[in-house]
Amino acid sequence: MRIGMPMAYSGGFTETVEQLVDYERAGLDVVHVPEAYSFDSVSQLGFLAARTTTVEIAAGILNIYSRTPALLAMTAAGLDYVSGGRFVLGLGASGPQVVEGFHGLPYHAPLARTREVASICRAVWRRERVVHDGPLYHLPLTKEQGGSGVGKPLKLINHPVRERVPMVLAALGPKNVALAAELFEGWEPIFYYPEGAEDAFGDALEAGLSRRDATLGPLQIVVDTHVAVTENDEDREAAMQQVREHLALYVGGMGSRGKNFYNDLARRYGFEDAADTIQDLFLDGRKAEAAAAVPDALVDGVSMIGPKNWIKERVEAFAATGVTTLNAKPLAPTHERRVADIATLKEVGA
Known about the structure:
The chain is 47% helix and 15% strand. With 350 residues, the chain is α/β, with parallel strands linked by helices.
């Protein structure tokens, strides 16, 4: 089992990067740098490439709307170059709140857009002269399509370190999950609940895998989770409370009543009544009550909080459903304990 960790900034960016070396020594395989409507992640990924030696650096994630497909490909090739072939391109459709609210772009045709982005990126990395005529992207853009008529097919000037940079698609909905299984090296779901994974994702994964090109290799499944190795009841409850609040924010507040992908996922896991209650409380401004309404079964299921033997059981449960990488946020209150928890996770997952 590979162990990843999302980049956190408690203590400051420079301090966090300096501490990342300790996680490298503890066996961390990959660090994921998020980007929503924050500082861009590309500048930070480049900085990480210069300060690390073995850990992979992953965009977690870049949305497919705010950069053109060619720019995404150029960026990935550049980060793969400065890191010596250690970059992973995490992509996702994000949602209308960010895409329309922050970028001012219509949230339109995410599935078709994702498919075209993947195709164009791979053509760029192969150093082909990029010619693409899809429903959404036209390269070169002709006069009939709104261009000046002087565009011509171009290929990347530089020679990439790798002809194919690994791409991971963050996806939750059935059609997006099927697309990840069909076209991407990896798939990244959030709030992965092994006991409910078959019901939530089984059919979609089967459909996508049936169309998968064998040259992509086995589908890598990268799941987001939280970890705290402890035998202390108070520490365990404090860690679980952090997960409750995190789940309440997403299930309750990341979207409207009619369009919340995370609320839909909780329902697919079998927590329909709880999903309703959490959303109603959160949108009414009763956030503490919303967190309290998150079922313990869901908190325990999507996280790894408890003594070492319990952590080992949860790692085995994730692995049994095909998970290959745990992207685990350590919840311990000190840096030393967080590093130790990552080392334990690596040990029990070996």
